[in-house]
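Hypothesis: this fold can be encoded by more than one sequence.
Test: take the structure tokens below, design a sequence, compare later.
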């Protein structure tokens, strides 16, 4: 079972979420193993031990889900550089990579993921559809890093979107909801489930989107980084930077979620993961150039090749790493899902549990994050 759990991808096909084939066996690729010299783990040696480094934690392993996106830079760098394993001590990290959030929610509900980095829309949807029983949001990770990139020869303004094919990573994922909400705000008529309407919304794997854009199969895409920067490198133009739609350009792109079952059974492990996340984010912000290189090295392991420098630099410039879950923006994200037709009026009461995040922040001499307003 261990080999099957290490890395898996769940794909959506014909409207049904199916488990994909296991990929990228990472036993010898540095994940969960001692970091190589010169990495972040070396830089942080002696910086203090996490709850997992000096005591035995309650779980022998923890299954962590994330995407091969720069908007998931925290696990990209933290796993690649050994920072997560450092704070988790003898608890083995078992990473799993997904194309988009709905697949990760399916895995979490099935017990194949314990803790995951994920966008707000799948987290909201998973919480609401489970009646508040499936997950908790326990931390932030990234703000920004999502754009609508189009073929400038076909689309010069928003009105030109009519009749065009615009891709998103998956039905109901964060960028899918953002696109549908944006189209609704511009009075385009869309069927959220089928993607049919004034604009054809095409759900496409991030790995395939640049090729589809290059061949003319799609006319643009609302995607996260680095896929957006890849489309720019193919001659695309940013029509909408999602940051421009939010006050001060701040909105939650990636949160950290946990299975409520795992949280109740292993709070010490969850605390260790949050300390690892905080340590990684601090290192990324203190060493952006090294962190960018390490993130690219991790992407090379996961996708088979590193990003070209111009793609990496553009994508990196669009993301902001933060522990803050930006709780004030989540209700608006839920409203977007409502507008898009994915949810009825959602009740998000209890979706957050920031107690362990506040504990690790306070232990590091930092202020707790702003608590959400219950609605």
């Amino acid at each position: 079972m261990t080999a099957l759990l290490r890395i898996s991808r769940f794909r959506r096909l014909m409207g049904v979420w199916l488990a994909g084939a296991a990929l990228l066996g990472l036993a010898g690729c540095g994940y969960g193993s001692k970091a190589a010299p010169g990495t972040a783990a070396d830089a942080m040696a002696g910086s203090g031990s996490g709850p997992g480094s000096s005591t035995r934690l309650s779980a022998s392993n923890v299954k962590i889900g994330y995407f091969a996106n720069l908007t998931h830079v925290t696990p990209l760098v933290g796993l690649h550089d050994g920072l997560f394993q450092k704070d988790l001590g003898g608890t083995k990290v078992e990473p799993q990579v997904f194309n988009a959030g709905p697949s990760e929610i399916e895995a979490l509900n099935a017990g194949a993921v314990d803790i995951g980095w994920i966008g707000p829309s799948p987290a909201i949807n998973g919480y609401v559809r489970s009646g508040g029983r499936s997950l908790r949001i326990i931390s932030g990770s990234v703000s920004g890093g999502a754009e609508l990139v189009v073929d400038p020869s076909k689309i010069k303004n928003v009105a030109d979107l009519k009749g065009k094919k615009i891709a998103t990573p998956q039905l109901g994922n964060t960028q899918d909801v953002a696109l549908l909400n944006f189209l609704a705000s511009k009075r385009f008529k869309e069927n959220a489930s089928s993607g049919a309407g004034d604009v054809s919304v095409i759900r496409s794997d991030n790995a395939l989107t640049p090729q589809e854009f290059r061949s003319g199969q799609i006319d643009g895409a609302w995607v996260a980084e680095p896929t957006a920067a890849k489309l720019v490198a193919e001659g695309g133009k940013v029509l909408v930077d999602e940051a421009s739609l939010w006050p001060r350009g701040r909105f939650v792109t990636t949160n950290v979620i946990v299975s409520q079952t795992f949280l109740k059974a292993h709070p010490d492990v969850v605390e260790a993961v949050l300390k690892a996340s905080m340590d990684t984010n601090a290192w990324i912000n203190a060493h952006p150039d090294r962190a960018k290189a390490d993130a690219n090295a991790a992407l090379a392991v996961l996708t088979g090749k590193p990003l070209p420098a111009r793609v990496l630099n553009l994508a990196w410039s669009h993301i902001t790493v933060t522990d803050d879950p930006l709780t004030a923006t989540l209700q608006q994200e839920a409203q977007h899902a409502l507008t898009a037709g994915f949810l009825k009026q959602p009740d998000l009461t209890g979706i957050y549990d920031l107690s362990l995040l506040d504990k690790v922040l306070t232990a590091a001499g930092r202020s707790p994050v702003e608590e959400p307003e219950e609605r």
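The CA atoms of residues 109 and 303 lie 26 Å apart. The longest helix spans residues 267-286.
Hypothesis status: open.
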